[in-house]
Design brief:
397 residues, twelve-stranded parallel beta sheet, 20% strand, globular
Length: 397
């Protein structure tokens, strides 16, 4: 088969590699010589997503038609459907597929079973550990997993690669007795170059496994930190996990603080003089957020800060805004000050509201009294006149 290279490129580019494994297999069956080079090139930046038993079979068949496919794969997500661990294709192919990904740069694992040992038998875990220790790995993401005593011993024995820069953890828990007392089998096996951590309060004990002497938790070299809580953080600056991370990482440039609570703790950001972007997100649907502590937190910044952008998002309404008018005005005072924030370029406020009384005549409009923008512009006139205030409203049924 001979096709113009431009046509081959267009055909392959049209396919969603991560989900359309069947189509990729069909192309390689038609001519691996023609289609394999462009597929391999695309896999340098496009992810492969394994979720079902068929995905394991398809990817295995693809790799048998072109030996260059798996070594070319850079981004792999294993997000498994329920009961897949008992199905033959997964049992048969997972270790060999992972071992074939010799150039893996980003690995994401979301098992169907929360217990790590139940989700992956020993042979599979060994293959995962080999992939995690690969010298090409830059990003590792784990979610919805519980590590027992033996699992912690296994994971603690890994030598994480110097190339590892980003770790993402979501609902990754450890056995209670192992909480902060975990002693890795390889005390010098932690990744020395981690610059980005995205975690929640549940996963902090596991995050400690990622850094060991001479660069122990809490890292001290982070440039990006995303920390989500579920309303359980303490007010103590010494016991609060996010506070510990903030104080230990003065070189942070990007900070996201997310919460499922009504309010957010007043974090001390006086040490974070390199911070350029601050994002505050309130996640819970239906709960109106409070700005009571935000102005106080902004007031902790050193005058030598270089903060450029502030983002606040969540559900609000005019009733809550009026009730907290003095706190919105306090927020305005600090953000409008060029002395306090000389480098500030933008303040974005994203409001979401549930609309229950849209006018039937033009189903897209919302009652004017529901719009928050006029109230916020009145309460934050100084920030508005500074030219940095951007208010966005979304109304959902």
């Amino acid at each position: 088969m001979h096709l113009p290279q431009e046509l081959v490129n267009e055909i392959v580019a049209y396919i969603k590699h991560g989900k359309n494994l069947k189509i990729l297999l069909n192309l390689l069956q038609a001519s691996s010589t023609v289609f394999s080079p462009q597929i391999c090139l695309n896999l340098h930046h496009l992810p492969i997503h394994i979720e079902t038993a068929d995905d394991y079979s398809l990817l295995s068949s693809i790799s048998s038609l072109s030996a260059d496919i798996l070594p070319s794969l850079r981004i792999l997500t294993i997000e498994e459907a329920p009961d897949i661990r008992l199905q033959e294709p997964r049992i048969q192919h997972l270790p060999s597929l992972l071992d074939g990904c010799t150039g893996i740069q980003a690995l994401s694992i979301r098992p169907c079973e929360t217990d790590w040992s139940l989700a992956f038998p020993e042979q599979h875990r060994r293959a995962i550990y080999r992939a995690i220790q690969r010298p090409t790995l830059v990003s590792l993401s784990l979610a919805w997993a519980h590590f027992g005593h033996s699992d912690i011993t296994e994971f603690g024995g890994l030598t994480l690669p110097p190339s590892l820069r980003k770790i993402t953890l979501y609902c990754v828990s450890v056995a209670h007795e192992s909480h902060f007392a975990t002693q890795p089998a390889h005390p010098d096996g932690g990744a020395p170059g981690i610059e980005e951590l995205r975690t929640d309060d549940i996963s902090v004990p596991f995050a400690r496994l990622m850094f060991r002497p001479p660069h122990p938790y809490p890292y001290r070299n982070l440039r990006t930190l995303s920390f989500n809580t579920y309303g359980r953080e303490t007010s103590s600056q010494t016991a609060n996990p996010s506070a510990v991370l903030l104080h230990a990482n003065p070189h942070l440039e990007y900070l996201l603080l997310g919460t499922e609570a009504h309010n957010i703790p007043t974090h001390d950001l006086s040490k974070n003089t390199a911070l350029k972007t601050l994002v505050i997100s309130f996640y819970v649907s239906g709960m109106v957020f409070s700005v009571v502590n935000i102005a106080a937190m902004l007031n902790t910044f050193s005058r030598s800060n270089i903060l450029e952008r502030v983002f606040v998002s969540g559900i609000s309404n005019n009733t809550m805004i009026e009730a907290e008018a003095e706190h919105w005005q306090a927020l305005d005072v600090v953000l409008a000050s060029k002395i306090h924030f000389p480098a500030l370029l933008g303040v974005e406020l994203d409001f979401c509201q549930v609309v229950v009384d849209r006018r039937p005549s033009d189903g897209h409009d919302v009652p004017e009294y529901m719009r928050c923008t006029p109230n916020i512009e009145r309460l934050m006139r100084g920030t508005l006149e500074r030219g940095v205030l951007d208010i966005r409203e979304e109304f959902v049924d």
